[in-house]
Amino acid sequence: MTETITGEVIHVVGPAELDEAELVAELAALAESRYVLVCREGGKPGWLERLWSFLRRDPIEPVTIVADDAVEEGVEVTATVRETDVAGVYEAVDIRPA
Q1: What's the rounded Cα separation, in Å, for the pair 18 and 13?
Q2: Distance between CA 50 and CA 78 in Å, rounded?
Q3: What is the pLDDT of residue 93?
């Protein structure tokens, strides 16, 4: 089953950097020669949303997407993803700029 996630890419680990990154074994196996994108779900929050999140002590949780294509940090994307067995990690079926 697929779902759609919109988020801001806050960190990218490329295929050449996978060995150097400290990834859990399950994520490293999923990634192999693909890109690991760490995204802030919901896109780039405004100052009011950041303040509200801080006051509620409810941090904005990141999600991890394993994708075939590279995406630059700071770009907002909309991805159709499939959930994996690893909590918070998704495989991209389709990913495009938001």
Answers
A1: 6
A2: 21
A3: 96
φ/ψ of 95, rounded to 5, equals -140, 135
The secondary element (H helix, E strand) that includes residue 36 is strand 35-41
Structure tokens given for 90: 């998704």
Cα distances (angstroms) measured from residue 36 to each of 19, 54, 68 = 12, 27, 9
CB 64 within 8 A of CB 92: no
| Structure token digits, residue 97 | 């700029």
Residue 47 one-letter amino acid: W
- For β-strands 2-13 and 76-83, DSSP reports them as antiparallel
Output the pTM of the full model. Answer: 0.86
pLDDT digits (tens, 9 = 90+) for 39-76: 988 777 778 887 888 888 877 778 999 999 999 999 99
Contact (CB, 8 A) for 13 and 73: no
How many residues comprise the chain? 98
